[in-house]
């Protein structure tokens, strides 16, 4: 049926027979139902269109994510494939949580590799150093055996000749001076070769530093140099003999470079769980271009020295697992600082 307003509808007729006393009765029911097939179809079409558009957008978004993932993974793979493990650069954030977790894992792996490489290099350095010390010790022992007796013979003959031959007194004195110089060089080499041999023990710091200062107090006064001492109370573990040798080398070095009327300051203090022994003077200090070489064996700017004093100090300090540093003093002089870790 079609109504006057143009809408379509369907008429439903229901016929139901009923039994009654009068006989059979038929009941008719009529219902009109509007036809909205076109409207429902349009709604279904719109829904399917939205579903299709959403699926397409979701697919495009997923493809973009997969492409971005693939690009980032390819970049990371390229870095890993072309870079040594210990030289992998820091990888920035990718913008994706899962990939960022992978990046963090790689960064941690990189740090572990670098730390492991540094540990291996440090162990190798110590091994080579120990081998060098052993070789130097053997050489020093050989030199001591081969040279001491001839030097003693030369010294004895020169001294005997000096008593009887007054004509060559000047030449004989030069021979004795050179023999003494060779003896000191030999002694320094032997000390350097045994610098790593230490016997640590618990030491009273105040007593130890005062005993060292007493040895050089008169010498400092004789040189016209003021010796200032700032001791420290308490105990520390180190080898008193080898550390005394290291301290004497630093103090002797300061006395040689401090002019008359100057001062030398010795300080013993505890810093950050380490014992710091510093020796500072009012001399001219060390030229900046020479500071990296001062601890190398046989490096010296003096005509009368052997360049082993600071090398011996460095070997002794490192045998205690410590370190020695050079710094410019307050008045431009030299300042050496020895740091010994707490091993109690």
Secondary structure: elements and pairs:
Blueprint: E1 9-20, E2 23-34, H1 37-82, H2 97-164, H3 169-193, E3 201-204, H4 205-222, E4 226-230, E5 235-238, H5 240-257, E6 263-271, E7 274-281, H6 309-319, E8 323-328, E9 334-341
Parallel strand pairs: 4-6
Antiparallel strand pairs: 1-2, 3-5, 6-7, 7-9, 8-9
Helix pairs in contact: 2-3, 4-5, 5-6
Please state the structural category: alpha+beta
For the termini, the CA-CA separation is 109 Å
SSE order: EEHHHEHEEHEEHEE
Record field, number of beta strands: 9
Q: Which architecture of the largest domain per CATH?
A: 2-Layer Sandwich
- Reported by name, the CATH topology of the largest domain is Heat Shock Protein 90
| Shape annotation | rod-shaped
**Strands across the major sheet, in which order?**
4-6-7-9-8
Overall residue-averaged pLDDT value: 77
Q: Could you describe the largest sheet, including whether it forms a barrel?
A: 5 strands, mixed
| Helix amount | 40-55%
Quick take:
This protein has 344 residues and is α+β, with helices and mostly antiparallel strands. The protein has helices at 37-82, 97-164, 169-193, 205-222, 240-257, 309-319; strands spanning 9-20, 23-34, 201-204, 226-230, 235-238, 263-271, 274-281, 323-328, 334-341.
Characteristic terms for this protein:
single chain, 344 residues, alpha+beta, Heat Shock Protein 90, two-stranded antiparallel sheet, 6 helices, disordered N terminus, transmembrane, kinase, transmembrane helix, phosphorelay sensor kinase activity, EC 2.7.13.3
């Amino acid at each position: 049926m079609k109504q006057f307003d143009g809408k379509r509808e369907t008429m439903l007729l229901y016929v139901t027979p009923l039994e009654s006393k009068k006989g059979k009765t038929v009941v008719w029911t009529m219902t009109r139902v509007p036809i909205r097939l076109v409207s429902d179809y349009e709604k279904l079409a719109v829904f399917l269109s939205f579903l299709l558009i959403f699926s397409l957008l979701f697919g495009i978004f997923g493809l973009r994510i997969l492409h971005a993932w693939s690009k980032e993974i390819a970049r990371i793979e390229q870095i890993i494939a072309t870079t040594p493990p210990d030289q992998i650069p820091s990888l920035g954030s990718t913008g994706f949580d899962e990939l960022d977790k992978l990046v963090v894992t790689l960064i941690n792996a990189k740090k572990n590799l670098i730390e492991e490489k540094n540990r291996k290099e440090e162990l190798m350095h110590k091994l080579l150093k120990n081998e060098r010390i052993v070789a130097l010790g053997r050489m020093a022992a050989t030199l001591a055996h081969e040279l001491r007796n001839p030097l003693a013979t030369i010294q004895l003959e020169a001294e005997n000749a000096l008593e009887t031959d007054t004509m060559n007194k000047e030449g004989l004195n030069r021979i004795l001076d050179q023999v003494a110089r060779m003896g000191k060089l030999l002694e320094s080499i032997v000390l350097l070769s045994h610098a790593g041999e230490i016997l640590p023990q618990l030491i009273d710091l105040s007593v130890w530093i005062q005993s060292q200062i007493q040895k050089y107090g008169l010498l400092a006064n004789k040189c016209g140099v003021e010796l200032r001492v700032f001791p420290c109370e308490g105990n520390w573990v180190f080898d008193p003999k080898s550390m005394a040798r290291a301290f004497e080398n630093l103090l002797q070095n300061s006395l040689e470079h401090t002019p008359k009327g100057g001062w030398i300051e010795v300080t013993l203090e505890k810093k950050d769980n380490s014992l710091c022994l510093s020796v500072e003077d009012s001399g001219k200090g060390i030229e900046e271009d020479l500071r990296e070489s001062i601890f190398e064996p046989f490096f010296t700017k003096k005509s009368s020295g052997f360049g082993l004093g600071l090398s011996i100090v460095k070997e002794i300090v490192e045998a205690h697992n410590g370190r020695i540093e050079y710094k410019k003093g307050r008045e431009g002089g030299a300042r050496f600082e020895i740091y010994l870790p707490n091993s109690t």
